[in-house]
Design brief:
This protein has 223 residues and is mainly alpha-helical. The protein has helices spanning 14-33, 49-52, 66-73, 108-121, 124-134, 148-158, 173-183, 190-221; strands at 94-95, 161-162.
Length: 223
């Protein structure tokens, strides 16, 4: 996605090359998953039962399952940042946080209670509980990160790209999921699947942008 919210992987662009490589990875992993001798299993279970039971050696997963894996595996668990690419960079994954919202219809008493709770949950005590029992990165900088696994997640988080908080992102999920299916079970080439996804995504984004473009044009032509 570019700065204006458009899909940034049309034919001939650097983004297209990156997307083709991304889809090629999915295709390669799918093919390996079809070969019993490869040792690769493609399984979307979260958390992964095989990893919990030590029949799977390694998984690609997120911090949301850290507490469960630490409980299941103890000292046998290790966490790593993403593998370094050929260009020397560590992939900058989307970085985002979790938030809590107060219903706009809450009365004064509930609002006061929410504020009291919010102050506690972000305090050193509250964030220490979240880190030690929930396996979450603390937002309070006064909380010490003693868990080496959390420290690794912190390093990866610091390399992350902020999750784009804009409506255009909603246009990506469906077509990208279909593209991944197309290059795996569907057997399409990455460039075919990427081209189809781009057309669908950009068409949806153009529809989103149309009212803004019309309003801008009207403002420009108005006396």
């Amino acid at each position: 996605m570019d700065a204006d919210g458009n899909a940034a992987f049309k034919d001939g662009s650097d983004g297209a090359k990156a997307m083709d490589a991304y889809l090629q990875l999915h295709q390669d992993m799918y093919k390996l998953g079809q070969d019993p001798a490869s040792g690769v299993t493609v399984d979307g279970s979260s958390p992964n039962p095989g990893f919990q039971q030590k029949t799977v050696a390694m998984v690609y997963d997120g911090i949301w399952n850290l507490a469960q894996y630490e409980k299941d595996l103890g000292d046998d668990l290790g966490v790593s940042t993403m593998p370094t690419l050929d260009n020397g960079n560590v992939p900058a994954l989307f970085a985002q946080g979790e938030g809590f919202y107060l219903n706009s219809n809450a009365d004064a008493a509930k609002t006061a209670a929410f504020i009291t709770w919010g102050k506690y949950v972000t305090s050193v005590e509250g964030q220490t509980i979240a880190a030690k029992q929930g396996g979450l990165l603390p937002v309070n900088p006064a909380v010490q990160l003693d868990d080496p696994n959390l420290q690794t997640f912190s390093k990866q988080f610091a390399l992350g790209t902020p999750f784009p908080n804009r409506q255009e992102l909603g246009a990506f999920w469906g077509p990208m999921g279909d593209a991944i299916t197309a290059v795996s079970a569907g057997g399409e080439t990455p460039d075919q699947a990427r081209t189809d996804a781009y057309k669908l995504i950009q068409a949806a984004i153009d529809t989103m942008h149309a009212p803004m473009a019309a309003a801008s044009a009207e403002a420009t032509t108005s006396p």
